[in-house]
Amino acid sequence: xxxxxxxxxxxxxxxxxxxxxxxxxxxxxxxxxxxxxxxxxxxxxxxxxxxxxxxxxxxxxxxxxxxxxxxxxxxxxxxxxxxxxxxxxxxxxxxxxxxxxxxxxxxxxxxxxxxxxxxxxxxxxxxxxxxxxxxxxxxxxxxxxxxxxxxxxxxxxxxxxxxxxxxxxxxxxxxxxxxxxxxxxxxxxxxxxxxxxxxxxxxxxxxxxxxxxxxxxxxxxxxxxxxxxxxxxxxxxxxxxxxxxxxxxxxxxxxxxxxxxxxxxxxx
Amino acid sequence: xxxxxxxxxxxxxxxxxxxxxxxxxxxxxxxxxxxxxxxxxxxxxxxxxxxxxxxxxxxxxxxxxxxxxxxxxxxxxxxxxxxxxxxxxxxxxxxxxxxxxxxxxxxxxxxxxxxxxxxxxxxxxxxxxxxxxxxxxxxxxxxxxxxxxxxxxxxxxxxxxxxxxxxxxxxxxxxxxxxxxxxxxxxxxxxxxxxxxxxxxxxxxxxxxxxxxxxxxxxxxxxxxxxxxxxxxxxxxxxxxxxxxxxxxxxxxxxxxxxxxxxxxxxxxxxxxxxxxxxxxxxxxxxxxxxxxxxxxxxxxxxxxxxxxxxxxxxxxxxxxxxxxxxx
Lengths: 268, 328
Ligand SMILES: Nc1ncnc2c1ncn2[C@@H]1O[C@H](COP(=O)(O)OP(=O)(O)O)[C@@H](O)[C@H]1O
Ligand SMILES: [Mg+2]
Known about the structure:
The complex is a heterodimer of chains A (268) and B (328).
Chain A: H1 2-17, H2 22-42, H3 47-79, H4 82-87, H5 93-129, H6 132-135, H7 147-169, H8 174-189, H9 191-195, H10 204-216, H11 226-230, H12 237-263
Chain B: E1 4-15, E2 21-33, E3 38-42, H1 49-56, E4 64-69, E5 72-73, H2 77-80, E6 83-86, H3 98-108, H4 113-126, H5 142-153, E7 160-164, H6 172-187, E8 191-196, H7 199-203, E9 208-213, E10 216-221, H8 223-226, E11 233-239, H9 243-251, E12 257-262, E13 265-271, H10 276-285, E14 289-296, H11 300-315
Parallel strand pairs in B: 3-8, 3-9, 6-7, 7-8
Antiparallel strand pairs in B: 1-2, 1-4, 4-5, 9-10, 11-13, 11-14, 12-13
The complex binds adenosine-5'-diphosphate and magnesium ion (MG).
The site of adenosine-5'-diphosphate has 12 residues of chain B, from strand 1, strand 2 and helix 1.
């Protein structure tokens, strides 16, 4: 455990120095610029759009980081052979993989936290610009804490994407890993369609196959509750918790696979 | 108990994409290294030295055979606590300083903060890294990375260290410092196993050597025993040498070859049958002066060639060296 922690801290340190966190500045600037423009255009009628945009931005920036560092970290370490000296220290290969993952999770956590704080700060500021007569037309207050549920699930989705990226990068090139991760993510978004595939096709084989994929592939669509929270529709905690548990089980399986592959690997 | 022991250690790499064949990088290496030895692992480029070290560090897995360090199978974490490893052309993390890197590695051994600070600063002094220790490693030259690599290899006061080409990338001054460091490690009782393709590195340091060529052990033992190095003759450099004197010495067979170095200086190749001291005395009496006398010996390359030739005669030519093995 201690070793995993030390490796994780090193990952975090390196990603900070590698200017990964600069994306946060981009995030804040983008969000401020867009909400300012929208405010001008709609005169405060549509806080929903700004919320929707903000949540989408948190998710997208997070995904970029998750994919790029998720793939880059292990690959870079192997490619540049810094792993040679690291693995000669008293650590086991699974500790290396888990340490890398924990470091990435830490980097993502800090990112999401900072973006969330910036997001709420901007919303709070916008709130001061509009009179009560406009505010009462909004489905939820500007700084509705209910949005935190959506952000929580975004974070778990990011952890899942990272695990997928890390899994692929333990045995394939960065380009292939990125393509596979992206492919899985896209399919995972249409997962619900796979479930009801038998309604569309005649062939039972195709339907079984689609069913199989539905159960095997990660259901990324489940993590997206943006629309519900923006319209202040109820999202039960039970849903949030089961979805998180689903994500964690999936992550555990991916990490187990990554460890199994990585432990048998020859380094060139 | 031996410090290092390998038994018929063999590594095949698959090569070729469409029809993968096995390339034999290491072929049945059996070796023992005793505790406290400075052991040179010599061979030309591509001989299989790095492959052997990677197998000992379990960075790759053997196709067959086995290896032990300090009586335990390689890869055992308790062994890693007691060993150190300098990879070939080491590379670390761009954004860490030398000091931070060593702190990180020291923390993996579980040393406390005060202990870590002391170790790190002592080590950096020992390998000759001064104020640069606060610089990020991406700004380091190859020679400086090599020094950092050596420092990280001995951060845990190991009982056995593995150095892969420790002198590469260093200037003559640096090479000497590393040689001295290796001798200091030996004096502390540490077993040093290092690879090199340069013979002189080994001569200055080793109690024993192994010579590998094309993945096979060609010879092992004391350097002076293995290599017929007494051999070939002498190179005598003389200044102020008269042409006439030179001609008569050549005519009488005392000199095989003379190379003019300019300003009546000559490098003379003297056969083994001629005593160089007598020859030099004679030249000096004719008004020449001695610049240097050196033995001319078989080079490692010549030795490998001879050895590989012998191996191939033993086994039949088709089976030699780099020939790919039939796929498994
Ligand atoms: N990952 C690999 N795949 C294929 N061949 C390799 C690989 N690593 C090394 N080799 C080959 O194995 C042989 C031995 O290499 P190496 O152990 O690096 O030699 P040395 O360190 O003695 O110079 C070389 O011919 C090299 O090309
Ligand atoms: Mg080598």
